[in-house]
Amino acid sequence: MARSPTRSTRRSLPARLFLLLVKLAVGFVLLSALWVLAYRFINPPLTFTMAGDLLAGRGATRDWMSLDEIDRDIVRGVIAAEDSKFCSHRGFDWDAISDAARRNASGGRIRGGSTISQQTAKNAFLWQGGGYARKGLEAWFTFLAERLWGKRRIMEVYLNVAETGIGTYGVNAGAQRYFGHDAAAMTRTEAARLAAVLPLPKGREAIAPQGFTRRYGNSIAARIGVVARDGLDGCVYEGTVAPRDRTPPPSRKPQSLPGDDVETATPPPPPPPAEVLDSLPAAPAEPPSPAPDAAPPAPVVEPAEPEDEPPQPDPEPQANTDAG
């Protein structure tokens, strides 16, 4: 005779499920911590975003460069553009997050408040796109990176895995693509333009940028000086010797330039009419119009000859009525 399940047996099923969840959570924590710790010493070989480009047939070009070799202006440029408090926060800029939340709640264009640490965690360990699940994982990996890597390694990984163009990853590959030389020596303008591409790498160009990208790059170039003056990149070079400023080599022909393959769901706003008029080529001078020909002489109309009148019949002789 089969034994009916006791109350303790019935309660054991939820307990077993709870125990399973606890084991999964502990396993995820341990594995994710080991994953992040491994990337402290090993450069990430592939990211989910790179894999997506490879599957889409766009390729994935990256040329890893040590932070000791990367021009300091590009470090200052991404801090000026993406995260001015990079050296003062522990992964999250709560003021920027709350400000972005207020602006997004008021409607209009959606803005993010992600720090460089958060973007590095997303690029190295996760996928692109939104969603609360991905945001939650991003926060966890950001926490681990801040504790296990430190600011210097976060910046180095960020500058080598961030997307800088269609199928192009890292500032070194981006510099070679747009400017024809590596990222060891860059002008301030080049560094600013490359930093301006980072928020929308598939829809912006660092070479001969137009409209918003050009104005944004000019703004970043001005703020690079503020970062240098205030030492906002000091944590990146703490305990090491910062690279000296180098003269960039002459620009060569870029390896590949975005053209018709630039992807953007929201194109940048059109430039002001004054910029459009300034960029238009001068109209060619019109040749002088020939003098109008003399009016043709009026046709001579000869007067029509009068038609011959029909002959009139002779009058009939009248009878002589006089008596003889």
UniProtKB/TrEMBL annotation:
Presence of the UniProt keyword Nucleotide-binding in the record: no
InterPro entries, sorted: Glyco_trans_51 (IPR001264), Lysozyme-like_dom_sf (IPR023346), PBP_transglycosylase (IPR036950), Pep_trsgly (IPR011812)
Catalytic activity as recorded in UniProt: [GlcNAc-(1->4)-Mur2Ac(oyl-L-Ala-gamma-D-Glu-L-Lys-D-Ala-D-Ala)](n)-di-trans,octa-cis-undecaprenyl diphosphate + beta-D-GlcNAc-(1->4)-Mur2Ac(oyl-L-Ala-gamma-D-Glu-L-Lys-D-Ala-D-Ala)-di-trans,octa-cis-undecaprenyl diphosphate = [GlcNAc-(1->4)-Mur2Ac(oyl-L-Ala-gamma-D-Glu-L-Lys-D-Ala-D-Ala)](n+1)-di-trans,octa-cis-undecaprenyl diphosphate + di-trans,octa-cis-undecaprenyl diphosphate + H(+)
Annotated signal sequence range: none
Stretches the record annotates as Disordered: 239-324
Main location: membrane
Name this protein carries in UniProt: Biosynthetic peptidoglycan transglycosylase
